[in-house]
Specification:
Chain lengths: 415, 415
């Protein structure tokens, strides 16, 4: 089986390297040789292990069986991949952004053509296969995933090493875990793309990133970490899908979770996805969510499935008859954490709790730390019982208009 | 697709129940109806959801596409399954004992016939699929699995609730997690059967239970738990496969592992398998390892793969060209923990350490607790640096002959 590689960066070169290094193993395990014959690269490379070209047309006309797309990009790349599928050639991709926007168009084009995308979610963890095949007998009740290693590294560093967000981000950048412009990772976009891919397999949801609730971790302070520790909680950036009757909540945001859950124990740059199915109950999948070798593991396993002629089911797994709808953001129903800085005067707490009850929000726990001498405000921490997103958003709007509030209140959801 | 169920107990009835309850979902996800038409049962059942029979010949002659074997048993069942395969009918089984002894004969018989056995290892966790397909690009360096929920429940209870082994076993029996005769679970046989299945997919090892090192958890005392806690370790019954050059260690035994590993965090009856691949690094798979519903999840996913015509690769995954050999037990090379009760006399510690160094064993840590008033012996705890199994076994033999040793020394391996 001959393949062409589009994009010869970290992942592309790892794919080529290990197709060659593990050649004997790969043939033993899938019954065929898988041979990379040409790679597309933007910048010429010395010591490339296979012939390279900078000419996209040369790649597209190459006589190969499978195209591996590792270029990134959304609309331009979608056009190129569409062209390949129209030629009835199989595709393997790691491109979650393209899938977040174009997965249903791609599925239409890929009828009877193998289309692998294991590498698009959680790097080397075979979560696409698990969800599409391994758990296929289950109604999926919830998916909760640590889908972005950069954010998890930052939150772990803040929690274990008492760093500020800024210090932890700098550490991540120094170690190469975060990019110079980290917003795609830390503001939840990357995790949202992955959640959307998973939600299609589980629920046939056609949502795009702009349709769902996405919040990042940049507003989290050491005070939040302190509060979480006091109450046996841990803060993780989670992608969450949750069924309520015929509707599904989809959301990405920093989340307080119990310290004794398996997800809470996932540290550093690792990824993990917890899935709750009606038959299996909770199962969890943990591993490296990024990096050349880990991602190559997923790309090559997709290629091997194609070699075994075992990848012909519809790309998103026959879900087209499932009838779930996206739940409106306002209807999200969960517990909340609130942190606010207020004037240190008589009657403030009573005003706040009055505003809460007017919005149908009841308090589950409350913490006020003794004021330090040099501070002219008090910091209050609340957690609430289950309530609607709409109520909390309304409360936040009203609180923000109050004179006694010193800085914009910060809210985080609790699972 | 019509199926017959052989064995209508907890798992069999859950399979039938959920094939019916999740019928619409199953059709949506695999494109076919999967219909259970007849079940074999030893004892007549009231309220069976489908026709039942006590006559094996009636089942074997039923006009169905797939036979689901949930009877248990080794040789007799192997004969029945062989007969089915000779008729060119697909088989799905949860029977790890049969696979531990007959998997290679079954693979020979199942050429071009679908043979699913996801439910045989770790219940509903799709670990067979993960290893056979998801991680297929990887040389598997190690497999470390908590493969028996009963043992894990007992060890968790001993560790968290300060119970003795006997108390924890009784609790497990009261909760229905352990059988009246628990030896199959607590002495490591069950975990060994599962490890053997995994080792065939990863390494093409033809070993049988009697060829590998199997030790159970019944000799573990609260003192061992105490020591583990002191040194930030946790005790788990692990099935371990580990590559050393062209050879593979296979062993099942209670193991001390670092408290901060993901495996150490697996509590109660849950199962988890940590796999280290040369591309992916460590990944871990966690979930329910037993129970009717969880096991049915795996059985039905196998049936759905067959319905999708996606289960035609060789049963053990094309591994027949891999050339690993089983490592001799004596050559196992790891760290060890030793607990021994000795006379409280001058010079004893010096004698013990001399015997250790004569056997090329060097001490990594040592603990002696102050003797209580009513004790006429001292308890000593050691951990060693890396050494060979042969050396430790020799040391244990020599120690056992010494007058100053009050009870047979106890040894546990450390990872």
């Amino acid at each position: 089986m001959k393949i062409a590689i589009l994009g010869y960066g970290t992942v592309g070169s790892a794919v080529v390297q290990f197709l060659l290094e593990n050649q004997k193993l790969i043939r033993a395990r899938c019954g065929k040789n898988i041979t990379p014959v040409i790679a597309l690269t933007r910048t010429p490379k010395k010591n490339a292990l296979i012939p390279i070209t900078q000419n996209i047309d040369e790649i597209l006309n190459a006589e190969v069986d499978v195209f591996v797309e590792l270029m990134g990009g959304v609309n331009e790349t979608f056009k190129i991949v569409s062209e390949i599928l129209k030629k009835k050639k199989a595709v393997v991709t790691a491109n979650k952004a393209m899938l977040a926007y174009h997965r249903y168009e791609l599925e239409n084009l890929a009828k009877d053509i193998a289309f692998g995308y294991e590498a698009s979610v959680a790097g080397g963890i075979p979560i696409i296969k698990v969800l599409k095949e391994g758990l296929s007998a289950n109604n999926i009740l919830t998916i909760k995933g640590i889908l972005n290693g950069t954010s998890n590294f930052i939150l772990s560093s803040m929690s274990e090493k008492n760093m500020s967000f800024k210090q932890a981000l700098e550490k991540a950048q120094n170690l190469g875990y975060a990019e110079a412009n980290p917003s795609f990772d830390i503001e939840g976009q990357d995790a949202a793309h992955k959640l959307l891919v998973l939600s299609s397999i589980a629920y046939n949801l056609k949502a795009k990133p702009e349709n769902i609730l996405i919040e990042g971790i940049s507003q989290i302070t050491p005070e939040d970490i302190y509060f979480a520790n006091e109450f046996e909680l841990t803060i993780k950036l989670l992608g969450i899908a949750k069924v309520r009757e015929n509707k599904v909540e989809l959301r990405v945001h920093p989340t307080m979770i119990n310290k004794d859950t398996m997800l809470a124990k996932v540290e550093g740059v690792m990824n993990a996805i917890s899935i709750n199915g009606d038959l299996l109950g909770e199962s969890l999948y943990y591993g490296a969510g990024a990096g050349g070798k880990a991602t190559a593991s997923a790309v090559i396993s997709d290629l091997m499935d194609i070699a075994k002629d075992q990848a012909k089911t519809p790309m998103l797994g026959f879900v087209n008859t499932l009838e779930y709808k996206l739940l409106d953001k306002d209807e999200i129903y969960t517990k909340y954490y609130l942190r606010m800085k207020v004037e240190d005067k008589i009657g403030i707490l009573s005003k706040i709790t009055q505003l809460m009850s007017q919005n149908d929000i009841s308090i589950d726990s409350f913490l006020q730390k003794p004021k330090k001498n040099d501070e002219n405000y008090s910091t209050l921490f609340f957690t609430t019982h289950l309530t609607y997103e709409k109520s909390i958003q309304n409360l936040l709007k009203i609180l923000d208009q109050q004179d006694f509030i010193k800085t914009k209140p910060f809210m985080m959801r609790i699972e």
